[in-house]
Structures are given as C-alpha cells and as structure tokens.
Amino acid sequence: QVQLVESGGGLVQPGGSLRLSCAASGFTVSTYAMSWYRQAPGKERELVARITSTGGNTNYADSVKGRFTISRDNAKNTGFLQMNRLKPEDTAVYYCRADNIWYNYWGQGTQVTVSS
After folding, report:
1. Please, what's the largest Cα pairwise distance for the chain?
2. pLDDT digit string (tens) for 75-111?
C-alpha cells in the first residue's frame, strides 16, 4: 500500500523550531521529487519547498527562504522540513508530496500552530 505519512507537527511559540518528517512506504522515493505544501484556514494550498530526487536542487517560497530547509534521506525513504524562526503566519496544515512523471502521492497532513 502506497503511503506518505507526515509527523512532527504541533504547537510552538513564535521564534521556535519544528522538524517535519515524511515517511514513504509502498514505493521508493529515490525516483521522486518531494515537496512540502501548506494550507491555512480559508486559504489555498501553497508550495513551501521542493527538492529534486537526488537532493541536488531545492526551491523555496519567498515567505520561508532563510528559515526553512528541505532535505531527504533516500536510504530511509524519508523527507524532512526543518522550520526555524517560526511565525504565526506559518500556522497551517503541512502536506508532503512525492511526484514524478508517472505518479503523484500526497500525505494526510500534519498541523503546525505557531502561537504564544
């Protein structure tokens, strides 16, 4: 069964950090790009960060550049999103995505809440 399972979300104070994980099962992520998206209440889902299959290239939304870092460990079939200097406007459900020219998989999401 193909699955992407996110973990690591939670409640954090402004300025704090969280590390999200995205564990894949039922397929091998090494031939997939991996991305993190987020969706805040009343807003559209937006791309936060993307990393190529080998990890050689990354892209970030302007709003998270310099604060978030996307990475992956293909040996562990897992992707990560390190989030530092979190702001209240980072509050959202964060989704992991794995895609290539043939397939496109999404996780179920993990809630991140930044509040004092």
Report:
1. 43
2. 999 999 999 999 999 999 999 999 999 999 999 999 9
Block residue for tokens 């702001």:
87
pLDDT the model gives residue 56: 87
**DSSP label at 32?**
S
C-alpha to C-alpha distances, 49 to 34, 54, 75, 84, nearest whole angstrom: 9, 15, 21, 14
Q: Residue 76 has what DSSP assignment?
A: G
Task: State both tokens at 3.
Answer: 């699955």
Cα-based torsion angle of the residue sequence 63, 111, 47, 45 in order, rounded to the nearest 10 degrees: -110
CB contact at 8 A, 51 and 71: yes
Q: Which two tokens stand for residue 113?
A: 């809440």
Is it the case that residue 39 has pLDDT exceeding 90? yes
Spatial separation of the C-alpha atoms in residues 40 and 85, rounded to whole Å? 18
What is the DSSP pairing of strand 33-39 with strand 78-83? unpaired
